[in-house]
């Protein structure tokens, strides 16, 4: 490989890891009919004059597979937390029990499962596009190196390395999607 050209493969890998991390975050927010504390991560509560994540105003627990509970620390915020959950679009109806808010997770019907599966597919496609954009940036750097005098053999070596990295991440995205779709369609 050329002495004067060094492709920053660590940067490319870090950016592809970022695309995978983003995909996992998006998948975690998809409700699958099974209770999960991560499904409340996008919910923000108007507490003490600012928007606060729900896990900073109470303890989020999953006592059973179809129930999430939130033990709100400040009694005065119980109503605001309940309102934030109702307005979040999660489709969950909170039930109050003192300072504890219970969120029973309803069964998903077949149509809703198919919709969620399609949403998961679009999240995965966005991740694939991100990975391919990183590959394109790497290939552009290699072309620039070729224009600066890199040999054709070195160019092919670098391109093969970037392509191999891309293929690995695309397979990981596909595997994550398949796992999530199986989880969604499971009754």
Automatic annotation (TrEMBL):
Q: Name it.
A: Ribosome-recycling factor
Which keywords annotate this record? Cytoplasm, Protein biosynthesis
Report the Pfam families cross-referenced here. Answer: RRF (PF01765)
Q: Which InterPro entries match?
A: Ribosome_recyc_fac, Ribosome_recyc_fac_dom, RRF_sf
Entry's SUPFAM superfamilies?
Ribosome recycling factor, RRF
Origin species: Tateyamaria armeniaca
Q: What are the subcellular locations of this protein? A: Cytoplasm
Q: Which family does it belong to?
A: Belongs to the RRF family.
Domain (Ribosome recycling factor) ranges: 23-185
Does the record's keyword annotation contain Protein biosynthesis?
yes
Function text: Responsible for the release of ribosomes from messenger RNA at the termination of protein biosynthesis. May increase the efficiency of translation by recycling ribosomes from one round of translation to another.
